[in-house]
Amino acid sequence: MPSCPVYKLTLHKTYYDKGFFNLGVEIERFVRSSSGPIKILLGDSKRQVNGRIDREANQNGTPRVFGGAELQHWLQRNFQLKDVVDVHIVSPNEIWINDHKKENGRQNIQKEAPKAAQRAASKPTEKAASKTFQRSGSKSNAHVGKVFEESARRFFAGKGITLSGNYRIPVGIEDRKKEHAFDLGSSSPKVIVECKSHTWTSGNNVPSAKLTVWNEAMYYFTASPPEYRKIFFVLRDERKSNGETLADYYIRMYGHLIPTSVEIWEYDTTRDEGRILKEASGQVGRLKS
């Protein structure tokens, strides 16, 4: 990749969870001056995602780069919250995001520190970890998601459905199509699965940003080929105040956004049991063994 302007992007929570980020004033002049499409290249393989620039999202006119679910999933697979990544401005209509990790400004300090101090500095405190990670004691949000995907794969294998990860099919509205990767899928039988292991917040509140991601998944289901069976597979997590699960809450509050063709399954990891909260017909009932 030729030398080009580089923006040091810190993956704050909103960027990490929603698949977009803002470029700062020091770099904004190098990208297109109006809203419109932009190519996003990801990692050393430079896999292309068709994104867009929005010049109206920020009051100061600095560009916001949208990459959608593909960018979101890639960032969560390759980085942790608050990591610093290099965004290379290849041209006004093309950027490349390097997947080489940087430890949030610690490099210069650690060069001068003894090795023991370096190891201590690289370990987050228990308090910091509780804010950074989705689960206490987990490696990262991406790790939690991958573990849950594997649980889903094993669960459906037990039902006689063999699924592959990162299953890509063309999706789109009407005649315009673009390849999209679902968490799991199969061509025979035709099944696509999106897995979400989100929970209520530590304060027993609604994880609003996470449910925005669920709504996005519903849109991709809507845009996917009708011959596919569509399964939304989520972790069972009960609210301490009233026992309502997050999936039940989502159906109650966002049912108007859930396509009738989508099945919603809830999985209890402690019991290795699943139940159907919403069938493709729109009916609700427990999974029959």
Explain the overall architecture.
Strand 10, helix 7 and strand 11 (229-235) form a beta-alpha-beta unit. The chain has a 7-stranded mixed beta sheet. It has helices spanning 13-18, 68-78, 107-112, 115-122, 126-132, 141-158, 208-223, 246-254; strands at residues 6-10, 20-22, 36-42, 47-54, 64-66, 84-91, 94-97, 164-171, 178-187, 190-196, 229-235, 262-268, 273-278. With 289 residues, the protein is an alpha+beta fold.
In short:
The chain has 289 residues and is α+β, with helices and mostly antiparallel strands. The chain has eight helices and 13 strands. It folds into two domains: 6-97, Beta Barrel (At1g16640 B3 domain); 141-278, Trna Endonuclease, Chain: A, domain 1.
**What oligomeric state is this?**
single chain
Overall shape: it is: globular
Structural class: alpha+beta
CATH class of the largest domain: Alpha Beta
Number of helices: 8
CATH topology-level fold name of the largest domain = Trna Endonuclease, Chain: A, domain 1
Strand % is 25-35%
Number of strands: 13
Helix content: 25-40%
CATH architecture descriptor of the largest domain: 3-Layer(aba) Sandwich
For the structure shown, list the relevant keywords.
289 residues, At1g16640 B3 domain, Trna Endonuclease, Chain: A, domain 1, 2 domains, seven-stranded mixed β-sheet, six-stranded mixed β-sheet
